[in-house]
Amino acid sequence: MLNAGVLGAGHLGKIHLRLLKQSTKYNLVGFYDADEKNGKKVEKEFGYKFFKSIDALIDAVDVVDIVTPTLSHYDCAKKAIKKGKHIFIEKPITNTVEEAEHIRELLAENNLRGQVGHVERFNPAFLAVKNDIKTPMFIETHRLAEFNPRGTDVPVVLDLMIHDIDIILSIVKSKVKHVSASGVSVISDTPDIANARLEFENGCVANLTASRISLKKMRKARFFQKDAYISVDFLDKKCEVVKMKDAPENPGDFDMVLQNAEGVKKQIYFDNPKITENNAILDELEAFANAINTNTTPVVTLHDGTEALRVANQIINNF
User: Fold this and answer.
1) What range(s) does the GFO/IDH/MocA-like oxidoreductase domain occupy (predicted)?
2) Residue 52 is part of a domain; what is its CATH number?
3) Which of 83, 187, 210, 224 could form a disulfide with 161 if both were Cys (CB 3.0 to 4.6 A apart)?
4) How far is the C-alpha of 7 from the C-alpha of 207, rounded, in Å?
């Protein structure tokens, strides 16, 4: 088992602590939080060992799980890597692309592993259809949330939209050639609602919308490709695959057949992929343990996290 420690005991940090404690791949050593009062409270309430210094925690573990505010990701990661520790780092990877690239360089120099917490890659609805999404040419995503003061220190693009940016970049194997965007600050000092259009060199277009001032929650993505439409509901863990194939000469009474202007007939049929329930955060943490133990590439690399941040910043700079 890998000895693991958590930096940051806020809302998400406490979830990571609980899951690392129950994981069969990690031995949770303890945690550090800059707020000593909060650290002692969490230690008393849950029994996790609270380290009074960040260095003491890092020295005691093999893997450092960084769940601190984004502004501190770079310093925490640099400190951990220089002490020879593998790092799991929550999204967004760092505050700037330059910081992210430096972290990647340090990891490579020290032959260590790193993974970024883009948890939607482990969403069971996405996993169920991932192999069906081959060459989408139009993608539409909506990620809406009710207002919560937590996370408003960064634009909604870095808080919410970055999930969908990472999903899209993991699927579209082409470079982004053009970005256009608009964002509006309603309650916060940074944009609370944003829309972006990404155009890729292969002709694919992605339209992304994110809001943290919505009256309802929504996390949906739709992928359109030749002869197929695929939808993913990340929130309710549902998915749908609608495909088209050449219609049979003698269709059945209940077959759905469309005919275009040229007389070509296509049959519509529905595929219902099996969704396997999981805990996505636990799965991403354990996938990282597997990558360390087998010396293989993590599912969400620091390169992935850097590219998602790079596109997110391009969107923000277009406001």
Assistant:
1) 156-216
2) 3.40.50.720
3) 210
4) 35
Report angle CA 312, 314, 319 to the nearest 5 degrees.
100
Q: How far apart are CA 200 and CA 190, in angstroms?
A: 27
Domain at 191, CATH number:
3.30.360.10
Inter-helix orientation angle 97-109/302-317, to 10° = 170
Which structural domain range is residue 53 located in?
2-112
Residue 146 has pLDDT above 70, yes or no: yes
pTM tops 0.90, yes or no:
yes
**Alpha-carbon gap, residue 225 to 18, rounded angstroms:** 40
CA 270 to chain centre: 28
Domain termination residue (choose one: 78, 112, 146)? 112
Are 111 and 178 within 8 A, CB to CB? no
Read off the pLDDT of residues 65-89 as tens digits, 9 standing for 90 and up. Answer: 999 999 999 999 999 999 999 999 9
